[in-house]
Amino acid sequence: MEVINKHMWEGNAAIQLASQVILELDGLNDLNLINWIDYYNIDVMDFCAKPNKSTLLHEYIKDIDYFHLEYLLDKHFPMTVINNLTPILDFFGLDYSSIGESIGLIDIDILDDSSDKAEEYARLLLKFYVENLSSVIVNEAFTILFMNKNFLFKFNSQLSEAIRELKVTDYPKLLKKDGVIKRVDFPSWLKKGVTYRDKGRCQLCGTDLTRIFQNDNPENYDHIIPLELNGSNDPTNIQLTCEKCNKGKGARNKNYVNSFSAFWNL
Ligand SMILES: [Zn+2]
């Protein structure tokens, strides 16, 4: 059993983490986005006023990853933490042998959940993971989730509940009015990333916007949840559309298509 478990983790830590985040957003452990914002006292305007490369979703993923591992430690399951983390650290070729040495641990195989050494070792291993690897896994999980429009729509719908409460008197430079963030220009790294993810196609009507053969379809970058409906400028809320769809959409509709384009048709 253990061997299977270890093989599952090798190289797949980000997929497991992304699945965990999808479940948490749905309320698995009362840590949906709104509860997380309250619990960790997040100022959403640090992320939502203008696009940052390190997005609000990166923060959410990072906290869920840590929360999950910390919870296992608090419930005294250090072996689960050790068995989860060591295959990931091994897979990425990180040398963590000094951790065992530092607490005089010779053989990891003798540990079990009831021993104090296991608890001590698991805490140090978690610290090492957070300092050396978690940002890599978090960014991989982000890449997986950024492709999933259903998830992004849900994420930004929950976020809009928090933005709705913001007062222009608290953020006079960043809000147009209560609950509505000012429009900003999108940086080129974001436009490139969104075009790449959306495969150069309008996400509402499918028009090809790559300009390889024609030049009469200007591309637009559009808010999945419109700013007027308490949408955000966080990269997670941006998609590629054509000018016609963007202008026709206005602030009244929330619209997106989850376009996982198949590699071939069955
Ligand atoms: Zn279109």
From TrEMBL:
Residues 189-247 form the HNH nuclease domain. This is HNH endonuclease. Transmembrane segments: none annotated. Keywords: Endonuclease, Hydrolase, Nuclease. GO terms for molecular function: endonuclease activity; nucleic acid binding; zinc ion binding. CDD domains: HNHc (cd00085). Pfam families: HNH. SMART domains: HNHc. The keyword Nuclease applies. InterPro entries: HNH, HNH_nuc. Gene3D superfamilies: 1.10.30.50.
